[in-house]
Fold this protein.
Amino acid sequence: MWQGWSNSGFSARGREQVKRIASRLNGAKFDVVVSSDLGRAMATAGALGVDVESDARWREMNLGDWEGRTQAEIREAAPDAAAAFEAREDIAFGGGERMSELIGRVTEAFTELTDRLDDGQRALVVSHGGAIYSLTAALLNSPDRSRLLRLTNTSLTTWRVNSNGPQLAVFNDATHLPGSPVRADVGSTHLYLIRHGQTESNVEGRWQGQQDGVLTYEGREQAQRLALAMPELDALYSSPLGRARDTAVILGTANGWVVETVDAVQEIGFGSWENRTRDEIRTVDPDGLASIEAGRDVRRGGTGETYAEVQARMADAAEKLAMRHPDQSVGIVSHGGAIRALGTTVLGLDFATRHRLPVAGNTSMAHIVWSDRGPAVASWNVTPHLDDRWTG
């Protein structure tokens, strides 16, 4: 049932979700906490035990006389308007708001809130699925909003604002809830893209590229902790590079999964830049690095790859694995740059706009659902085993 601005109480499942998110955020430090003024959002914020500001701009979309109806009822009563909604036309849904009006007010609220924060400060906003989803799509400026799946109740989505602008640090993290809360069409493949554990080169800021690399003690600990928090998989694949393969073996050994390597999901080839820091690259190839920093997608290190080439091979590899495993869950252990290349491809972003989706952390998971309508990002940079990002 579509609620919009209407209020309703929590179901038993909703009450459990609120308890779980309150427990997860227990001890977290936020400089500002803001909530939509609608009852269900204020009740969720109140369960966190913190001082809360209310702001009506964070409300859900006003759906007019569609509120209180199911999608099937709306299709029957107003088939043309329902079709326009599903086609993402900018109409006043049910006589309520236009999508552009919703995006305008949540974007205004987001901008004003981030302007209030000093460097290093954090804000928490309790809002609604449609509002957060619409803001996320707008800030990404993705050409096709359908490439993001809808958010799960009480999920966490994090935006980081820096010199590159807003970055989607975490999307739809609902790992505090039991099972897999993501809904998908029958026949869809669930792809879990997992970045390898920490290496010495990661610690030193070296661009490893297609060199093997060895996991640090911390990297192996990360992988072992992830092994206990993994969703159930039907197949597990890995890049052939040592740091990814070693991570995959740890996951597979703990869960009884056989690891198969796939060359096409290895890291970006950096040519002569491999295993160098940014400062070292600037010394040996200042023109090449300057081109990258200026937003030109040149071949890395002279003999390496372009970002567009990595996007193409990662998308091709993911599609082949999705077609091989319909209605199954598949793990792919890969690398930070390669996983981001796939994520930006799904969202319709290119090299110039890649910063809107930052490189995910070591042993983080990105969940992509592949259906007959194509791929969509269900979650990004989720670390159920490394939860200190919220309380640290």
Remarks:
- The mean pLDDT is 92.
- The first strand starts at residue 32 and ends at 35.
- The domain at 189-269+305-391 is CATH 3.40.50.1240 (Rossmann fold).
